[in-house]
């Protein structure tokens, strides 16, 4: 039986107690009677003490502190961190040609992700020039999204941006440069992911995958789809000089310390080597085992898709993320196009014995924190932000987040 524990030094019952109000939690409080999900274990009957919005102590057993919130034996995990979500685009355009105000879309989407346990979200802003699966992507729309995210004030979710640059887009790079130049000096290092969605590259290494997407997703007839595939391949060949210029610019931005660089859908060891050479820190959704192995050898963090985990396969026919997790080649999961998928994917990995539950939770907390370069969150450790997800795992196969708490 765990011996009684005491509150951290300097913490009296009066300091940790305080009235709860709707909105932000008080600066000083405690959550008792929870199963705290630590990096290597679960502490049963724990009390987690918060002071000034930071974790001040994780106590086992009874504690001589007044706890403001009874956790009723729920799991208490760090708030989930999502380093790549494209779902805001769909929230903004819920039907083709049915656009809603961007500020409303952001507020609406926030409700969904907070209820799923996510407290830090990186929204993918596509500095591109294409239309796919009914979504129009243009650089000026990406800039609008960035500004809306910057200006959106929230006590529930820390909204941030993942800047997605099509390396073949002059307009995209030009607009992204304006975006980065306008940010204040000394601010957070920005996440930038570079990608090439040409048939025959990355996600679409097999051009027939793009062909089927155009027919089944965009509704093109086979002849029109085939023509578009060939046109995109021709355009890439004609614009390789743009690609090289954009990659050189990104390398310079990394060396200046302005961006943290991710490589999207790398498909080979050669792609990984080139990414590492230009200062890349993260391999995002590697499409082959060889690419993932090379990323590990180069010391890059590896992100996989939570939907891929849930489905057991890639929607593009690439390597299964479950296979990569099984061989230790995944550091973080991202929701990609399914914002509610993080907790479910982690739970599935634990249920199938691929990882322990604390290890699986690490893929949606501490792992993404490292991917994003955030050292102040992602684990239940003293001194880190008191961003929490309370999880009920008693209701069946799929656990659910029943509440989130986020420090100011």
Task: Give keywords.
7-stranded mixed sheet, disordered N terminus, single chain, 15 helices, globular, TIM Barrel, 408 residues, Urease, subunit C, domain 1, alpha/beta
In total, the number of strands is: 17
**What is the name of the CATH topology of the largest domain?**
TIM Barrel
Main structural class: alpha/beta
Q: Count structural domains.
A: 2
The amount of helix comes to 25-40%
What's the oligomerization state?
single chain
Beta-strand content bin: 15-25%
Q: What shape does the CA trace take?
A: globular
How many angstroms separate the termini? 36 Å
The strand order across the widest sheet is 6-7-10-11-12-13-14-15
Radius of gyration based on Cα positions: 22 Å
Q: Tally the helices: what do you get?
A: 15
- The stretches of 5 or more residues where confidence is low (pLDDT under 50) are 1-7, 9-16
CATH level-1 class of the largest domain: Alpha Beta
In round numbers, the mean pLDDT is: 87
Write a concise synopsis of the structure shown.
It is built from 15 helices and 17 strands. By secondary structure, it is an alpha/beta fold.
Please give the structural blueprint.
Elements: H1 13-16, E1 29-37, E2 42-51, E3 54-60, E4 69-70, E5 75-78, E6 80-85, H2 87-92, H3 102-115, E7 118-127, E8 129-132, E9 135-138, H4 139-151, E10 158-166, H5 170-182, E11 190-195, H6 207-216, H7 222-238, H8 240-255, E12 259-264, H9 269-277, E13 282-284, H10 289-298, E14 301-305, H11 306-311, H12 321-326, E15 332-334, H13 341-351, H14 357-362, H15 366-372, E16 388-392, E17 400-405
Parallel strand pairs: 1-4, 1-5, 6-7, 7-10, 10-11, 11-12, 12-13, 13-14, 14-15
Antiparallel strand pairs: 1-2, 2-3, 5-16, 8-9, 16-17
Helix pairs in contact: 4-5, 6-7, 9-10
